[in-house]
Write a structure and sequence with these properties.
- It contains eight helices and no strands.
- It is mostly helical.
- The chain has one domain.
- The radius of gyration is 18 Å and the shape is globular.
Amino acid sequence: MIAESSNNPPDIWKGQSLHALCLLTLLLVLYYGWAYLGYPDPAYFWVAAFIPILHQVFVWVSWRRRLASSDSASALEFRIYLIIFFLLFASRFVSLFALGWMDGGSLHLSATSQFILIAILLFPGLYAAYSVARYFGMARAAGADHFDPRYRDMPFVKAGIFRFTNNGMYFYAFLLFWAVATGLNSSAALIVAAFSHAYIWVHFFATEKPDIKYLYS
């Protein structure tokens, strides 16, 4: 059994200076990348970039609010959180696809190059997604341990993609965003996919890692 730490939970601002600094840096790089491409499809581009920010800010606030509460989360509260979480997560793919569709062909990949790159990206990405669903559980992947203490007693997963890395979701599952951009042959979608992948690691170090330190010993 994994005991809950006796330390105080991280307050809502713990790690968020790092979050803000890294986000501003990534947005600056993203803007210059967009400018280099000739400012393609501004509405689609910035919606696709904004949704990952909205998603991760929602998770940060929800997790820290829950850790600060002395009351147990109700089943309804957790269900509402999961609905919003997965709607935002799905919106990341939808908005990226829309951007890639509008900007299709700008990457100028040959059909052969596309096929090879998509295969390289899809295999680990889909295997990671399967491993999360099969061995880890979607609720747990969304942060169920912040809402239900029973999840904190579960052993760490060492099956599927997790045999090779402790963080298969962030290392490999996010390659699916790169696959969408490559499949649509879109340079604008590709740099948003790169932004999204880099930004999830900001979430890990700024928000998730301090929470893990508190939740598990």
